[in-house]
Amino acid sequence: MNIENGIISNWNKEKGYGFITPKSGGRSLFFHINDYSHQHKHPIQNLIVQYYASIDQKGRVCAIDVTPLKGHKNNGRELRQKFFSLVMFSLFSFVLFYFFDAKLIPKELVFFYDSK
């Protein structure tokens, strides 16, 4: 298999698939989000990519191992946001437990059910 270059000519974000127009010309190739690099931001229309041409289970030509040629890398923002959320939740839980244990807040505010 030879690596080829092309441009994403059509991308359907909701359905997770799109088409690549080869730089060398010819018919557009189908590709699925599962065949796109997980180290990069989601695909967008008019993004220049490299890929390998392959044959799918139904015998159709498709693109696999699709990767942007330049840039379009994840900057880690999503990971930082998740980490920050986890830290804030942990801090809130610790403060709530501390105040509850020190009997500074009534247990009725913490427990929402009747434990009869």
Residue windows where pLDDT falls under 50 for at least 5 positions = none
The CATH topology of the largest domain turns out to be: OB fold (Dihydrolipoamide Acetyltransferase, E2P)
Count of individual beta strands: 5
In the residues, how many domains can be counted?
A: 2
Per DSSP, the total helix count is 2
In which range does the helix fraction lie? 25-40%
CATH class category of the largest domain: Mainly Beta
Task: Note the quaternary state here.
Answer: single chain
Mean pLDDT: 87
CATH architecture of the largest domain: Beta Barrel
CATH homology group of the largest domain: Nucleic acid-binding proteins
Share of β-strand residues: 25-35%
Distance between the termini: 69 Å
Radius of gyration: 24 Å
Structural classification: alpha+beta
> Strand order within the widest sheet?
3-2-1-4-5
Shape: elongated
Encode the helix/strand succession as letters: EEEEEHH
Largest beta-sheet details: 5 strands, antiparallel
How are the SSEs ordered, and which strands pair?
Blueprint: E1 3-12, E2 17-22, E3 29-32, E4 48-55, E5 61-68, H1 77-101, H2 107-110
Antiparallel strand pairs: 1-2, 1-4, 2-3, 4-5
